[in-house]
Amino acid sequence: MENGSLDYWLHESLDKSSILKWDVRLKIAQGASRGLAYLHKVCEPHIVHRDVKSSNILLDENSKLIWLILVSQGCYRPYDTHVTTDLVGTLGYIPPEYSQTLMATCRGDVYSFGVVLLELLTGRRPVEVCKGKNCRDLVSWVFQMKSEKREAEIIDSSIWDKGREKQLLEMLEIACKCIDHDPRRRPYIEEVVSYLDGIGVEAAGQQ
Question: Protein kinase domain location, by residue (predicted)?
Answer without folding.
Answer: 1-196
